[in-house]
């Protein structure tokens, strides 16, 4: 491995999925994994196979289709975890087993209730077990950021001797600050006699808003793998953001003696895909992928950019996948033109059925909306793909009355396996009335955990993209819908979530490990 290569380890499918409400189905994980592979991510951590049958099958599905990235599974330092992980990864071209055990005093005493020597022994045994399945073994001392340095050195030296090829140093609770964390990495590399036999990695959480800064400080001090997620997704305040780490390294080559192999033009596609699947909208002022990341409103800034882009822009928007190009398509455009335009956006279809569904939705949109943008087409494709799921419930028609001084009323027809049912309900607003009417038919017993609306483009004729998150007995499901009519988009999102709820692949939240 070249010393100037920084390995990008994406854990969107595993740690990112631990965001409350971000649980993904097997097929959704495969879609994201393919996008990550296209972006040339080095390692894709696909999940935690021991957590559930659903997670096992998702890791296996990713391992079966990904050929150009290493596919990784997470396991505790236990025989049953490692066996399960190896089974899920058996068809992977380059499998990696990532095993971990906590090493901080508070975790050893309060969580594991183990003595340090027992923790060291279990760590070594776990690495040896994992090496029985693959030469590509990663070890993480959980909560390394709060571990005692001498003990940390002992554990890491021992697991490298046992065969670990990557040593990941997690700031599990986001406690560290950049100078401190960079110094820790430097000290570990200098103090551990066999440190040259492993790649040192970091996995930083964003509890203090320092995950990216801590990761970059570690890179400056010798780390050559960064674990990160698309859009900074992750439990609590999230993980280090892949796009921010990659673009910081690329933009500030004067400060870093390394570079990544990432195709940065794929960043926006991955960001939108993950946002759409998880229902976690990207804030407008988010670095790199936020809607305002390359926007200039100040007159002084606008004047400077028009004269020379570099006066106020340190990156080109096109380098991360932003485009100002407008797709010129209308209601008379044919299927081949539609397919060609989507190909220019790096959007491909897994089946002719998916193409036909997206094309049908495009025709419907073209009758409503005069100008169709890249973002409109991306939303169409995402919705068409999601709606190919089992449509047990289907919206046939919807009429909503909302008037000043009157209680909103929704009247609708919902198809259930082809049989149509009428429903009507009042509510505090048109969307509330619509959801209550749907529930008259579905009687799902779910709890509404999130209702989110985002405009896809600008203007009053913009499509609204709605995310609905439902919870039932520990299972959390995200449904999406898009339409120029926000109430119809809301109804479609709710019905989409109800259809997904019927899918046995939609399991309990991944933090609920049933072992």
The poorly predicted ranges are 296-303
Helix/strand order, N-terminal first: EHEHEHEHHEHEHEHEHHHHHHEEEHEEEH
Assembly type of the shown chains? single chain
In terms of DSSP E residues, the strand content is 15-25%
CATH architecture of the largest domain: Alpha-Beta Barrel
CATH superfamily of the largest domain: Aldolase class I
Instruction: Determine and state the CATH class of the largest domain.
Output: Alpha Beta
Instruction: Domain count, please report it.
Output: 4
* Tally of separate helices: 16
CA-based shape: globular
- What is the helix fraction of residues, given as a range? 25-40%
Radius of gyration: 24 Å
CATH topology of the largest domain: TIM Barrel
Explain the layout of strands and helices:
Elements: E1 7-10, H1 26-38, E2 43-47, H2 53-65, E3 70-76, H3 79-88, E4 95-102, H4 105-112, H5 116-131, E5 137-142, H6 149-162, E6 166-171, H7 178-191, E7 199-204, H8 211-220, E8 225-228, H9 242-251, H10 267-278, H11 299-307, H12 335-344, H13 352-368, H14 374-387, E9 393-401, E10 409-416, E11 419-426, H15 430-442, E12 447-455, E13 464-472, E14 475-483, H16 486-501
Parallel strand pairs: 1-2, 1-8, 2-3, 3-4, 4-5, 5-6, 6-7, 7-8
Antiparallel strand pairs: 9-10, 10-11, 12-13, 13-14
Helix pairs in contact: 1-2, 1-10, 2-3, 5-6, 7-8, 13-14, 15-16
């Amino acid at each position: 491995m070249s010393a100037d290569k920084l390995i990008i380890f994406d854990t969107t499918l595993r740690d990112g999925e631990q965001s409350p409400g971000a649980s993904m189905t097997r097929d959704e994980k495969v879609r994201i994994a393919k996008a990550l592979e296209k972006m040339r991510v080095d390692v894709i951590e696909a999940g935690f196979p021991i957590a559930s049958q659903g997670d096992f099958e998702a890791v296996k599905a990713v391992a079966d289709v990904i050929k150009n990235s290493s596919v990784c599974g997470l396991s505790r330092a236990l025989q049953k975890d490692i066996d399960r992980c190896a089974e899920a990864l058996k068809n992977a071209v380059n499998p990696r087993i990532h095993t971990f055990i906590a090493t901080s005093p508070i975790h050893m005493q309060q969580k594991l209730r183990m003595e340090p020597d027992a923790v060291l022994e279990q760590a070594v045994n776990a690495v040896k077990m994992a090496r029985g399945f693959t030469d590509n073994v990663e070890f993480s001392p959980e909560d390394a950021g709060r571990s005692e340095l001498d003990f940390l050195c002992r554990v890491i030296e021992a697991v490298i001797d046992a065969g670990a090829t990557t040593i990941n140093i997690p700031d599990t609770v986001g406690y560290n600050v950049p100078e401190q964390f960079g110094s820790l990495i430097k000290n570990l590399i200098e103090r551990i006699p066999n440190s040259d036999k492993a790649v040192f990695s970091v996995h930083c959480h964003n509890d203090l808003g320092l995950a990216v800064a801590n990761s970059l400080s570690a890179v400056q001090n010798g780390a050559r793998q960064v674990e990160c997620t698309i859009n900074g997704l992750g439990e609590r305040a999230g993980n280090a953001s892949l796009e921010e780490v990659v673009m910081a390294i690329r933009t500030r080559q004067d400060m870093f003696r390394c570079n990544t192999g990432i195709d940065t033009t794929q960043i926006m596609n991955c960001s939108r895909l993950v946002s759409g699947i998880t229902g976690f909208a990207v804030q407008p002022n988010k670095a790199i992928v936020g809607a305002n990341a390359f926007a200039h409103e100040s007159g002084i800034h606008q004047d400077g950019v028009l004269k020379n882009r570099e006066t106020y822009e340190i990156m080109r928007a096109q380098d991360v996948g932003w485009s100002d190009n407008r797709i010129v398509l209308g209601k008379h455009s044919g299927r081949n033109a539609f397919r060609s335009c989507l190909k220019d956006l790096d959007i491909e279809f897994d089946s002719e059925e998916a193409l036909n569904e997206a094309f049908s939705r495009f025709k419907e949109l073209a009758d409503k909306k005069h100008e169709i943008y890249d973002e409109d087409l991306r939303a169409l494709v995402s919705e068409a793909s999601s709606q190919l799921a089992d449509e047990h419930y289907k919206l046939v028609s919807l009429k909503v009355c909302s008037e000043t001084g009157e209680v909103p009323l929704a009247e609708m027809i919902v198809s259930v396996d082809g049989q149509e049912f009428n429903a009507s309900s009042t509510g505090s607003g048109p969307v509330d009335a619509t959801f209550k009417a749907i529930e008259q038919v579905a009687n799902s017993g779910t709890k509404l955990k999130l209702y989110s609306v985002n405009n896809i483009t600008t203007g009053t004729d913009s499509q609204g993209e709605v995310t609905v998150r439902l919870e039932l007995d520990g299972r959390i499901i995200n449904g999406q819908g898009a339409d120029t009519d926000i109430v119809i988009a809301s109804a479609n999102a709710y019905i989409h979530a109800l259809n997904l709820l019927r899918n046995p692949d939609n399991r309990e939240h991944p933090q609920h490990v049933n072992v």
